[in-house]
Amino acid sequence: MISTETLWRDIEAIREQAPLVHNITNFVVMNTTANALLSLGASPVMAHAADEVEEMVGLASALVVNIGTLSQMWVDSMAKAIPAAAARTIPIVFDPVGAGATRFRTESCLRLMGLAQPTVIRGNASEIMALAGAQVQTRGVDSGAAVDDAQGAARQLAHQWQCVVVVSGASDLITDGEALWWVDNGHAMMPRVTGLGCTASALVGAFCAVNDQPLTAAAHAMSTLGICGELAAESSVGPGSLQVAVIDALYGLTREEVERRLRVRG
């Protein structure tokens, strides 16, 4: 089970080891996710050129693939990086942004996932349901479904791909197909800031880099971001200041705040 002790151990490991997290992510969130990783203590690199992704993966402790601003060029780079990461047995975190919105996105996700077993798939309810083959109504990259609606799809995907699946929402669901954990941390203002879901995927990569138990690592990452969202909301007047305050909260997070706020049920 997740506890203050287990979560804080991972945070200390990230701060001590500064794992290099290779992100092939979208233009909208690069700055936010890089700063979030740096603030927590990890070392981010945003490299998506097909000419260098395999070499960069060779240096990394985790690979995070996020299809947010998708084009065929990006797909080609991802298709090189994913097998390279699998060959090195480093964690692969896959974020299927907007899956289900267009055929290109959904088919690209399934093709990329088929190249190597992902370690963690993190998405919103609609994205996870779309990957599982459900007919869902999406709103671009926003979910048209609730987390509860995606429980079956999350378990199905976890079994199908032998991985951990995270469904983000008001409460985050984390499953390996058998265990089912809920993280109740977070704040209602967080969905008003673009890229915090993508930030969650990047943080999952950092935690997976220091913890070889993906279910636990993913729950730790979601708890950390949720706690920092709560802390940030206390000093923010709106989404703009919240975004900055989340970065500050990741940097200044203490064991005492984790112990006071951590809310995980399973």
TrEMBL record:
CDD domains the record matches: THZ_kinase
Domain of life: Bacteria
Stored InterPro entries: Hyethyz_kinase, Ribokinase-like
Associated pathway: Cofactor biosynthesis; thiamine diphosphate biosynthesis; 4-methyl-5-(2-phosphoethyl)-thiazole from 5-(2-hydroxyethyl)-4-methylthiazole: step 1/1
GO MF, any single term: magnesium ion binding
Residues involved in ATP binding: R122, S168
Biological role: Catalyzes the phosphorylation of the hydroxyl group of 4-methyl-5-beta-hydroxyethylthiazole (THZ).
Protein name: Hydroxyethylthiazole kinase
Gene that encodes the chain: thiM
